[in-house]
Amino acid sequence: QVQLVESGGGLVQAGGSLRLSCAASGRTFSGYAMAWFRQAPGKEREFVAAISGSADYTYHADSVKGRFTISRDNAKNTVYLQMNSLKPEDTAVYYCASTDRSITTMTGRYAYWGQGTQVTVSS
């Protein structure tokens, strides 16, 4: 059974940084694309960033491009999201997800999800 556990969220001032981690277990980690999504109160879940199994390909949403960076360490079965220059509009619950398909930005193609970690950015 695939399990994803996020950590690293918290409260930070605007302009600050956080690094989220997602520890995966239950299958061969390096074989599958991973992604981060976020959901703010009253809004739909939205794509943030994705990375292929071998880390050869990454995608970042336009809203975070240049500020956030997704990466992975297959030896540690962990995917990361480095978030710099944080803005109040980045406040959301951040979810880690894994897909059985190739790298994609589409929420519906991710079958496995973590429980989420809260990120709050104060102005």
How would you portray this structure in words?
- With 123 residues, the protein is mainly β.
- Helices cover 0% and strands 48% of the residues.
- It is built from no helices and eleven strands.
- Strand 4 (34-39) and strand 5 (46-51) form a beta hairpin.
- The mean pLDDT is 95.
Shape: globular
Radius of gyration: 13 Å
Number of strands: 11
**Roughly how much helix do the residues carry, as a percent range?**
under 10%
Judged by helices, strands and strand pairing, the structural class is mainly beta
Uncertain segments: none
Tally of helical segments? 0
Overall residue-averaged pLDDT value: 95
Helix-strand sequence: EEEEEEEEEEE
Distance between the termini: 40 Å
Sheet with the most strands, sense and barrel status: 7 strands, mixed
Strand content: over 45%
Tags for this model:
123 residues; mainly beta; seven-stranded mixed sheet; four-stranded antiparallel sheet
Write the layout of secondary structure elements.
Elements: E1 3-7, E2 10-13, E3 18-25, E4 34-39, E5 46-51, E6 58-60, E7 68-73, E8 78-83, E9 92-98, E10 112-113, E11 117-122
Parallel strand pairs: 2-11
Antiparallel strand pairs: 1-3, 3-8, 4-5, 4-9, 5-6, 7-8, 9-10, 9-11
